[in-house]
Design brief:
single chain; alpha+beta; 196 residues; 2 domains
Length: 196
Amino acid sequence: MPNGQMRIYAAALVGISLVAIGAALPLGAFFAGNGRTAEGLAFKGNVDIALYDEFGVLKDERHIDNLIVDAGVQGVASRLAPHDGSINPTTPYNYIALGTGSTAVAAGDTALAAELTAGPNYARLQDTTAQYSESTKKLVLSVTFAPGQGTGALRESGIFNAAAGGNMFARQTFAEIQKASGDTLTVTWTITLTPS
C-alpha cells in the first residue's frame, strides 16, 4: 500500500476509534470540570397527627406533606454561618405548635394563622430528644398533647425555635381535628434531608 494511502487509512482508524470511545463514555465526563460535580441539599417534610380518646383508641389521624417556609431556610443558613442578627444560630427548632387557622400555607409565613393562645391548657411542646437516622437522612420530632392540652378545632401545626414567638421552620394545615378535653394528640414531624 502506498505511503499516502497508509496515512489516510491510519487517520481513518484513529477517527473511528475516537468516535467509538466517545460513544462508550458519558459526555458528562468531558464537561465535569476537573471531576467535580454539583451537590446540594433538599429538605422535604411531612407531619403525622394521631388523635386518641381517653381509652387510647385511635379516633382520627392525618398524614400530610409540609412546607419548609423561607424563615426556616434562613434559619438553616444561619446555623451554617450566622450572617445577620435576626436568627440565633444556637436555638434549635424543636418546639411544635398547634393552631385553629386554615389559611393556606405560603413560603413567606412566619407564624401560624391562629395559634392557640398560651394559658393553662396550651403551650408549645418541645422535643428535646429528636431522632436522626444517618441511613435514611430523616430527622423526627414528636410530642404528645395530653388530655386538657391543646383542645379545640385544630387545623394547623408548625415547628418553632422558641416556646413563644421565635422563628418558624415549617407549617402545615390539615382537615379539622376535634380534640376533646379527654383526648391525647400526638404530632410527629419528619424532615428528610436529601443530598441532590
